[in-house]
Amino acid sequence: MRVMERTFREQLFFLVLCLSVLKGDTRYIENNEISKDELFSFFNSELKRETPEEFLYRRPLRCLDMVAVEGQFTFNAERPQLSCAAFFMAEPNEVISVDYDNVDIDCRAGDFITVFDGWVMKGEKFPSSQDHPLPLYERYVDYCDSGSMRKSVRSSQNVAMVFFRIHNAGSSFTLTVRKHINPFPCNVISQSPEGSYTMVIPQQHRNCSFSIIYPVAIDVSEFSLGHYNNFPKRAMPGCAESGDFVQLLGGSGIDTSKLLPITDLCISFTGPTHMKIGCDNTVVRMVSSGKYISRVSFSYRVLDSQELQTLKLNNVEDFCFNN
Q1: Within 10 A of 106 (CB to CB), how many other CB atoms are there?
Q2: What's the pLDDT at 296?
Q3: What is the reported pTM?
Q4: How confident is the model over 168-198, as pLDDT tens digits?
Q5: What is the mean pLDDT of residues 297-301?
Q6: 267: number of CA atoms within 13 Å, CB side?
Q7: Which uninterrupted H or E stretch holds 51?
Q8: Where does the record place the Corticotropin-releasing factor binding protein N-terminal domain (predicted)?
Q9: C-alpha 97 chain-centroid distance
Q10: Residue 56 clears pLDDT 90, i.e. is over it
Q11: CA geometry: angle at 64 spanning 60 and 66, to 5°?
Q12: Residues in contact with 259: Cβ distance below 8 Å, sequence separation at least 6, in sequence order
């Protein structure tokens, strides 16, 4: 790995998926800096905290923030804050709702609070436009545009974000964040560098992806894709032509449409298929025609330094970072 090149994982975890720099009037986000210690303080304080049911957790919202618990988060502007973003994360089987409360901002002066259904980094979006059920413009919900007509926004997956711009000191707003069970999760960013997961698409025409933002060893243990259940395990040319298949993708971004295919699976089987993938982002992506119940089970763990070095010697780095 090149010393001078900052990898996607460093950008994602050392920058809390990049604090957005909002340029001009645009409401799309780009990079900013945050230290490693700051990042892991977010994860240590938020991801492992358990909120007692008898009260609602409350704390101030920072201009750059990572939130992984339910609660009320209040931002009070002590000075103009023009480049702020908060990233929200839940468990894989949950979605997130964000409610606007006690909003005191000046929309006419250019203030805004915008909830995005997913995460954005360097212009790339998760989930990608190909995999999200809504058109892109519907994924942005701006308080100043919707006002009192829409005070609550719910994500389609386990991540969401809010970015905001405040021009005047003394302005403030409160966000109430809650998590809700999602019986059929689709499109997930993993919180953990290791674990196991089963992705099921119940006769729905949609694409679902599970994103692991680490180099990992991955074992696909079960694979059931509709009309190939009774066929022998064999290679089939053109998995995409079948309409029901699973892809393993790798690369250095969060948009699955821009990642490189490692392998396609379109024949059902039971039994381990093992791979080591040295990319900063590894994605298991399932494409479903909607005609069948599709299912894939897999486990994963982060690669250790020796395994990464071996992959580097085998030129896997070129695949992951040079394309």
Answers
A1: 13
A2: 92
A3: 0.78
A4: 999 999 999 999 999 889 999 998 889 999 9
A5: 95
A6: 11
A7: none
A8: 56-180
A9: 15
A10: no
A11: 75
A12: 249, 250, 251, 253, 281, 283
